[in-house]
Amino acid sequence: MAYPAACLFDLDGLLLDTEPLHARAWRDAARSFDTDLDPARLLALRGRRRLDCADQVLAWIRDAGHPCDGREALLAVRQPIAERLLAQAPAMAGAERLVRNCYGLGVPMALATSSSRAAVELKAAPHRWLELIATRVHGDDAELGAGKPAPDVFLIAAARLGVDAASCWAFEDSPAGAMAAAAAGCRVHVLLTEATQDAVFPVGSVMLESLEEVVL
Ligand SMILES: [Mg+2]
């Protein structure tokens, strides 16, 4: 079997088990503005950049008729909750093995994440194996125009590795992220979780129940 030109990895909910923590931080923050975020809303936030999520949650708070001074006021509540939770995020099953496998086989890797550089540093600190992925595109990357579900993050990641995105495997867990990877032309691998069982993913995606299923 031919190896992919590169593997492009999402971080949150794919390599690290952060999505329940992100969801809890948004839910608790919205609740302090008397607004409830149900599972469908939490799913819609998944995979997107923090500021994009903040704008959406702010809209929901205001739609419900509750006052909120703005994005900064919301993030001032949300960020301390998130940082406390995310510093202890565990790895997803099979993530470390997959990354070490790619590294050992010489398959180039990049991180294609909506998370900011500072947020990645916080979450990755306990996981030294993530240092094997040296090429990274962050949500606050200077070159990045639109965040996921736009394809930019994957296109930039492939370009930095000097490969064609269409020859890459992308690994994603969120509908927004999988749409981004598909739009970039990657072969999309979707890690399904309980929260995304009923979500819609791009046609032709390889569906995984665990990263342990990936054969390289
Ligand atoms: Mg994700």
Key traits:
DNA polymerase, domain 1, 216 residues, binds magnesium ion, 2 domains, 8 helices, 41% helix, alpha/beta, single chain, Rossmann fold
What's the gist of this structure?
With 216 residues, the chain is an alpha/beta fold. 41% of the residues lie in helices and 11% in strands.
CATH topology of the largest domain: Rossmann fold
End-to-end Cα distance:
8 Å
Major β-sheet annotation: 6 strands, parallel
Count of DSSP E strands?
A: 6
Q: What is the H/E string?
A: EHHHHHEHEHEHEE
What is the spatial order of strands in the main beta sheet? 3-2-1-4-5-6
Count of separate DSSP helical elements: 8
What is the domain tally?
2
**Shape-level CATH architecture of the largest domain:** 3-Layer(aba) Sandwich
CATH class of the largest domain: Alpha Beta
Give the ligands present.
Answer: magnesium ion
Structural class: alpha/beta
